[in-house]
Amino acid sequence: MARFIFRRILSSIPVLIGILIVTFALIHALPGDPCIAVLGERATEEICEAYMKHNGLDKPLPVQFGIYITNILQGDLGDSLRFHRPVVEILIERLPVTIELGLAALMFAILVGIPLGIISAYRHKSKFDLGTMIIANIGVSMPVFWLGLMLSYLFGVLLMDTPLTLPPSGRLTPGTYPEPFYLVWGWVIEGEKPAGILVFISRLNILNCILTFNGGVLVDAIRHLILPAITVGTIPLAIIARMTRSSLLEVLGEDYVRTARAKGVREFVVVIKHAGKNSLLPVVTVIGLNFGLIISGAVLTETIFGLTGVGRTLVDSITSRDYTLVQGFTVIIAIGFVLINMIVDILYGILDPRIRLS
Predict the structure, then answer these.
(1) Which regions of the chain does DSSP assign to beta strands (E)?
(2) Which of 32, 81, 270, 334 is the most exposed place for a label (fewest CB within 10 A)?
(3) Nearest to 310 by CA among 112, 14, 99
(4) In angstroms, how far is the first alpha carbon of the chain from the final one?
């Protein structure tokens, strides 16, 4: 297993370099001047010349790319042209928003989609199966931005002042800010600058509230996350439900399933243990692929629900020609894809003993 993981890491390095090259070429091929995009009406010829020289944008493109690769190897993603701050600091602030949203959406899609697919396959051609597949097809067809707006209007306006009301925007109620766990635990004295990893973990609101046993803020954070998670997770849920149903239907027709039933094995054990486990391989693949769908859906969802995460920041950075920020965020997202694919490959070996990873 260790050798397999090591080989996967080595094989992912050319992929990451290729992504960097393509992103670097595309972002520099976009029409427009980064100085004008950032400074607007203040951008005179003299100011833009000094701006380009200060940020190294006057150098040839191969030289710029070489400097960027060298900085990455040293753990430096550069400084944002728009915010004049290190890209790493901006990532520490905004990546937790997208991670929290993505994990919540993925959990929603898996915990609802897989049971629906299993029940639909078991009750094949029943009214439940027909209704589930109709809902799944509708879920795949609904645009993310429309669903987000409809959910905000329903739970934030129509159901206002009722037990079912939910916050239509933001991560927390204004004025509600949980104290970072590193201050509560006494790891950092107030006034000192904490390490980046501590700040990153503390900005994961749900995890920070659990670490500090802050139940009130935890409930508030979860309530704010429900609508965005449903919005992002609806399409993956529908895809997972359909794939689970079709995969399980195929396995339920195998000889070993009929043999298990003939031996008197309980139906629940036959469906879940014998058929269910063997039908999960394509489902795991779909779940891994839906990671990208969740990231792309987060771009619009973060805008609709007023969340300042990676998706929203990345779009703003592209329009403002903030090359270093776009490239830095792209590297992190690419690393996320590589890790997800690696986890999927490892799960193959766990689910199917016939697969040998050594």
Answers:
(1) none
(2) 32
(3) 99
(4) 6
How many residues in the chain? 358
DSSP 10-39: HHHHHHHHHHHHHHHHHHHHSSS-HHHHHH
Beta strand residue intervals within 245-316, DSSP E: none
User: Which DSSP state fits 180?
Assistant: P
> Within its chain, how far is the Cα of 354 from the centroid?
31
* CA nearest to 346, candidates 303, 288, 290, 293: 288
**pLDDT tens-digit series, residues 74-124:** 777 777 877 888 888 888 888 898 889 988 998 999 999 999 998 888 888
Which residue reads 């239907």 in tokens? Answer: 249
Query: In 3D, which of 333, 336, 355, 334 has the Cα closest to residue 346?
Result: 355
Report whether 298 contacts 102 (CB < 8 A).
yes
Q: What is the pLDDT of residues 177-236, one digit of tens each?
A: 888 888 888 888 777 888 888 989 999 999 999 999 988 899 999 999 999 999 988 888
Residue 164's H or E segment, with its range, is none
Residues with Cβ within 8 Å of 320's Cβ and at least 6 positions away in sequence, in order, are: 34, 37, 38, 81, 82
**Nearest-angstrom CA–CA distance, 273 and 139:** 29
* DSSP code at position 163: T
Residue 299, CA distances (Å) to 25, 95, 145, 307, 356 in order: 22, 12, 10, 10, 38
Tokens of 243: 């794939």
